[in-house]
Amino acid sequence: MRNWPLSELSITTPRLELRHPSLDDLDELADRAAEGVHDAGYMPFTVPWSQGEPAERARSVVQYHFRTWATFAPDDWSLQLAVVHEGRLVGVQGIAGKDFPVTREVESGSWLGRRFQGRGIGTEMRRAVLHLAFAGLGARHAVTTAFEDNHASLAVTKKLGYREDGIALHARDAEPVVTRRFRMRREDWTESPDIKIHNLDRCLPLFGLPASGFSEA
Q: What is the pLDDT of residue 217?
């Protein structure tokens, strides 16, 4: 789409492609959500979108992406990328920023279809958006949060070298539960030469950055 440069944006890693989803991609992602993304009786998300019947989960995925497209602005954006593995849509890796031209801080979040978990895909897709944040957008900090019993997410975070950055309390199923926050500074990030960003330059103004590249000023 000529008037929506993000539609051309993608990141490639040795095993994955992360791309702005097409309408067909959204249909397939909705199918993944309908199949399930976590065990019954456990909620890993602060917003419990994955509850409900399969058709409700599928519809919520499509609606959420439409909302992020409609509200994308330099001072408050959320980029949700479809993750492709061996030709199949397997999940979503998101990255978001508020007042990013000033704060240079991003926050990540993701989900992965349950039958694709345990293969190292979650680590690789997070590494991809960290590359986009630091190498592509000039971020100075990346943060992420997870419930203290979300062991899979915490394992990815620790593997990538984030540092502890505090805790918060949330209500989950009418019970208090601790979320742990982590931070990675640009100087602690290790660049991955096998990760490539495609068609970013025309997208940069949407993030509040110059089209010719980011400025560290």
A: 35
Please check whether residue 143 is in contact with residue 182, taking contact to mean a CB–CB distance below 8 angstroms. yes
Q: Look at residue 208 in the predicted model and tell me its pLDDT.
A: 94
pTM for this predicted structure: 0.91
Instruction: Provide the residue type at 165 as one letter.
Output: D
| DSSP string of 153-170, one letter each residue | HHHHHHHHT-EEEEEEEE
Helix axes 23-35, 54-71, angle to 10 degrees: 140
Is residue 55 situated within a structural domain? yes
Residue 143 counted as domain residue: yes
Flag whether 42 is in a domain. yes
Q: Per the structure, how many domains does the chain have?
A: 1
* Alpha carbon of residue 38 to chain centroid: 17
Structure tokens at 100: 């990013």
216 pLDDT band, cuts 50/70/90, is: very low
